[in-house]
Amino acid sequence: MKRIPVLAGNWKMNKTPTEAADLAKTFAASLGDVTAAEVVLCPPFVALLTVQAAIKGTRLGLGAQNLHWEKSGAYTGEISAPMLAGWCTHVIIGHSERRQYFGETDETVNKKVKAALASGLTPIVCVGETLTQYEAGETAEVVKRQTWAAYTDLSAADAARTVIAYEPVWAIGTGKAATGAGANSVIGIQIRGTIGALFGSGTAEGLRIRYGGSVTPANITEFMIQPDIDGGLVGGASLKSADFEAIVQSAIKAKGS
Ligand code: PEP
Q1: With CB atoms counted within 10 Å of each terminal CB, which end of the chain scores lower, N or C?
Q2: pLDDT at res. 2
Q3: What is the pLDDT, as a whole number, of residue 256?
């Protein structure tokens, strides 16, 4: 089954609203009419509006980096799915930095995925093992558990509206990426396999699953030539316009789209 590559830039806690708009304008000019891949920019919450204005009229998607599962209420500092719905397209859920520093659990990830879907947002669901788990040989078990938990009680139709990012925690921001073959194996066997067990092989084959963790222009091709890898979630390199543009173009070339 043909799956359109998807590449997202996770800008994390970087860029003021003005700086973010400037960076988004460069991507709007260089990547705004790309059709062979879905390209999504995920700035901090406060920059979503300025980035939205900067990419207006282009094909670029706009993603938040988190949300709360409740629609509204006494949750100081939080942002809900209905607040993002209708103008944001995507939302990152369960990023390892949120699991590590902000108490995100498999259960809250599941609630957030459901909230995003209910508001018509595309969840970018992040899973991945820590260095300790990797060294203990627990990658398969951890990734299967996280995937299963995130998709618990979803319908196959809803699952098909999500995308997944496999991000080994030891590869995020470390400059030490996984190998293409290693990431492909985890994605194909553990993640796509779990989606298949939950929803059937048709849903699993259609779902786009990408790799994230120290992706650069130099290594993106190694990932994109793998049959089960459908794109990248890019952190550090997405803040450098030339690097992110090169990553998107190389990804498209590698998939032959
Ligand atoms: C990320 O934040 O999701 C990420 C993969 O970061 P980096 O590309 O910097 O490793």
Answers
A1: N
A2: 85
A3: 87
Provide the mean pLDDT of the chain: 97
Ligand 1 atom nearest the C-alpha of 174 is 10
Q: Is the CB of 128 under 6 A from ligand 1?
A: no
pLDDT tens-digit readout, 82-102: 999 999 999 999 999 999 999
Q: What is the mean pLDDT of residues 106-135?
A: 98
Ligand 1 mean position to 10 CA, how many Å? 7
Q: What is the mean predicted confidence (pLDDT) over 142-159?
A: 98
> Catalytic residue positions?
95, 167
Ligand 1 centroid–CA 46 distance in Å is 20
Q: Is any atom of ligand 1 closer than 6 Å to the C-beta of 219?
A: no
User: What is the number of the ligand 1 atom nearest to the C-alpha of 177?
Assistant: 10
Q: How confident is the model over 142-148, as a mean pLDDT?
A: 98
Cα(236) to centroid(ligand 1), Å: 6
AA identity, residue 86: G
Q: For ligand 1, is residue 172 a contact (CB within 6 Å)?
A: yes
Q: Which atom, in ligand 1's list, is nearest to the CA of 167?
A: 5
d(CA 141, CA 97): 20
pLDDT of residue 257: 63
